[in-house]
């Protein structure tokens, strides 16, 4: 009996309880600064010690996201729709950790309506065609040469002429406040092709006889600083764009025989030879550049009516669309990097204004007609958070 009790004691007294280790909390990889996210896209939370068997909750400014994949080092989620800027958080075991701060990628396209009694800049709803005016009535719009948006200063800059045909620029903030007119210094009244470079400097081409130069505009004083000598360009242009990769301007014009060409201009004033477009046709509009610095033009000759990429070395055209009902009375074409699509503004045969969306693969949307009254529009411009 004594031996049995001793054995019982030794067996149970010496046996140790099995140790259950608590789940180790995940470690998050630090995200510096504020990131930009797009609704419907994917976001990866990076770190360590994630587990498929654990329950995590990821929220974007309080809106829960769907978790699609968990590995030891990543949690992948689908970014919810209808979110606002804020913080991404991770909840686990009753604890909440901040992952990152974010803003939401967005695309806003604007048009200036210069009908009597309106004369306002409006945001276009790209789904419904509704207009939301962001300014009161301003003395601008009758003879414009374009409008650009400065990401640096968060403002629109438009170029116009007053009733005495004196050229000026005006600045418009997204909250609707506007500057006084800033008149250009010097002589001359013939200007075209307002353009902005990657650093926010704004330029205009002056094609008066004896000038024909590209000039930087001082946005405070209106002084012009010419960056080129006199070049054979400017009489019949279809726009100028800035190529950030090659750090050069690319302009589209026609020579005295109305043959179409492009020209490249460096910020130091050096210019290329004219690069003539290959093929037939003489009706072009809406020069535009995409995020990868490919340059396009819309050819609206009867039987064509297609958007084409321009080979900047040879002048060859590669059409990216079939024939579409667009191009006769356009007010510009812009490219959305967020949505990877072109947005064009035109009027139909009854002069009703509409927008159309064109994907780089050539697919196009139906016409989206603008709501409301009025038929006088100019200066299509895009603003993106990306």
Give a summary of the structure in a few sentences:
The protein has one helix at residues 2-14, and strands at residues 27-28, 34-37, 42-48, 57-60, 63-64, 66-70, 74-78, 86-92, 95-104, 106-113, 120-124, 131-133, 147-150, 155-161, 167-172, 182-183, 191-196, 202-206, 213-217, 224-226, 240-243, 248-254, 260-265, 275-276, 284-289, 295-299, 306-310, 317-319, 333-336, 341-347, 353-358, 368-369, 377-385.
Keywords:
single chain, 386 residues, mainly beta, Neuraminidase, 5-stranded mixed sheet, 4-stranded antiparallel sheet, 1 helix, 33 strands, 43% strand, elongated, disordered N terminus
Verbal overview:
With 386 residues, the chain is mostly beta strands. It folds into two domains: 77 residues, Immunoglobulin-like, CATH 2.60.40; 280 residues, TolB, C-terminal domain (Neuraminidase). 3% of the residues lie in helices and 43% in strands. The chain contains one helix and 33 strands. The strands form eight sheets. It has a five-stranded mixed sheet, with no helix packed on it. The protein has a four-stranded antiparallel sheet with strand order 1-3-7-6, with no helix packed on it. The termini are far apart.
The percent range for strand residues is 35-45%
> Would you report the number of β strands?
33
The CATH H-level superfamily of the largest domain is: TolB, C-terminal domain
Summed up, the domain count is 2
Major β-sheet strand ordering: 2-9-8-4-5
Radius of gyration: 29 Å
Low-pLDDT stretches: 1-20
Q: How would you sum up the global shape?
A: elongated
